[in-house]
Design goal:
The protein is an all-alpha fold. It is built from 2 helices and no strands. It starts with 18 loop residues before the first helix and ends in a 7-residue tail after the last helix.
């Protein structure tokens, strides 16, 4: 038929993690993210605007981009 294609493997897959190991890895990633992204994580809330224009004005006034 044609020349054989060779498959090249790059890197290695991690073995399956236990839930405790996955949680520990997630905490490390979260700490690294907080160093890169200095804005605090917002508490959950609901913002109700009467119009789309009012919402846009509120969104543009926010300093923390995590709020929108």
């Amino acid at each position: 038929m044609g020349p054989e294609l060779k498959v090249r493997t790059v890197g290695k897959r991690r073995p399956p993690a236990t839930p405790q190991e996955a949680f520990a890895r997630a905490q490390v990633l979260q700490r690294q993210l907080e160093l890169i992204h200095p804005f605090p994580r917002p508490r959950g809330f609901v913002f109700k605007a009467k119009t789309h224009a009012e919402y846009e004005a509120w969104r543009k006034a926010q300093k923390n981009p995590r709020l929108w």
